[in-house]
Amino acid sequence: MAHHWSLDPDITFLNHGSFGATPTAVLDEQSRIRAQMESDPVRFFERDAVELMAKSVGSISEFLNADRDGMTFCHNATGGINTVLRSLELNAGDEIIVPDHAYQACWNAVEFVAQRAGAKVVVVDLPFRCESEDEIIEPLLTAISPRTVLAMIDTVTSPTGMRMPFERLVAEFQARGVDVLLDAAHGPGIVPLDLDKLDVAWITGNCHKWLCSPKGAAFLHIREDKRESTKPLTISHGFNAEMSAVEKFRFEYDWQGTSDPSAIFSIPKSIETLESMVSGGFEAIMERNNNLARAGRDVLCESLGTDAPHPDSMVTAMATIDLPGTYDGPPDFRGDPLHNGLLDDWGIQVPVFPWPHHEMRYFRISSYLYNSLAEYEYLAQALSESM
Ligand SMILES: Cc1ncc(COP(=O)(O)O)c(C=O)c1O
């Protein structure tokens, strides 16, 4: 199905997970929206944008089975996480639980708000290799104290590609009076999500990853009881508007100053486009991608002489495999030498990162509709000749 994307045919692209990749039909829709905007920017923002926003809210709310009155957008999951954290009124001594598999940028945001308030970040060490969900759930719940006010939990972890048992974690934390902020950066289109059922306080997730929307499209859903206190990162005209709570929420979130909303307005088209590619829609897409990631992981593990680190039930369309040896240095922003060699000498785009928290180095594969098993076999060959 690669012909639906404009990916470089000379590159074996095994990193959908970092920034997604957008089909040309969706990029064309984004260009159409931009042309509409530039044909009369005032009419666009005064009238067209209101309609397009309602369409995007409706489309993502239906996709996630969510209350549309709590659905809003941001340009990325980092922004969604910051929106929630920076709205919290923390007291000195409050505790926030963060697993050590968390995405560092979001973890940093937790550190920032905690330091400002004199609150404490309780980092929970989780294993990389594990055999069951209980090995993840148990240490996280054990970390709860009478001062715990929040847990930031991932749907799928970034450094370790682990599908978290987030449904159980949300239920367990919230039953103990601890709010959950769900980091679903890898959420829509990679794991089934039913927001009505989850009933989580806050969830933010990217549409530009596994829904293949253009870059700069993410959602933030806020449960009704948190809506009044959770303010957008940018305070704008809506703040002093006198209107109903529902209208005010829309105004405050939908207008945070002038920006290009074309990525967000292309979300309905991306869902429609992907669903038209595979009969069975996203359920079938997820199954296909997940099966391919597991098959690719197995090929690579066998070639490297190692075992899969997680059971299949904890693997989605991304799989992480640890590399031999240890590593405790900082990440090198010029790229890991193995990553650079795979790209320059073999034309393979695959992330290789150090993970200092566990003194490890690993690589992470992704699978999307444009990938095939032969590409992971090629990576296995490249790795065996490069290491
Ligand atoms: C778990 C997790 N959270 C947050 C992010 C940040 O996403 P973005 O760069 O779109 O803000 C990522 C990105 O890969 C991620 O994997």
Please supply descriptive tags for the structure shown above:
387 residues, alpha/beta, Aspartate Aminotransferase, domain 1, Aspartate Aminotransferase, domain 2, seven-stranded mixed sheet, three-stranded antiparallel sheet, 14 helices, 42% helix, 15% strand, globular, binds pyridoxal-5'-phosphate
Describe what this molecule looks like in 3D:
Helix 8 links the parallel strand 6 (179-184) and strand 7. The model has no long low-confidence stretch (mean pLDDT 96). The two termini are 32 Å apart. The protein is globular and about 65 Å long. The protein is built from 14 helices and twelve strands. It has 387 residues and is an alpha/beta fold. The chain has two domains: 2-23 and 278-386, Aspartate Aminotransferase, domain 1, CATH 3.90.1150.10; 28-271, Aspartate Aminotransferase, domain 2, CATH 3.40.640.10. Helix 12 packs parallel to helix 14 and helix 13 crosses helix 14 (373-386). It has helices spanning 16-19, 24-39, 41-64, 77-85, 104-117, 134-142, 166-175, 195-198, 245-254, 262-265, 267-277, 281-304, 337-346, 373-386; strands at residues 12-13, 71-74, 95-99, 120-124, 148-154, 179-184, 202-206, 218-222, 318-322, 348-349, 352-355, 360-366. Strands 2-8-7-6-5-3-4 form a seven-stranded mixed beta sheet, sandwiched between helices. Residues 18, 76-78, 103, 105-106, 154, 158, 183, 185-186, 206 line the site of pyridoxal-5'-phosphate (PLP).
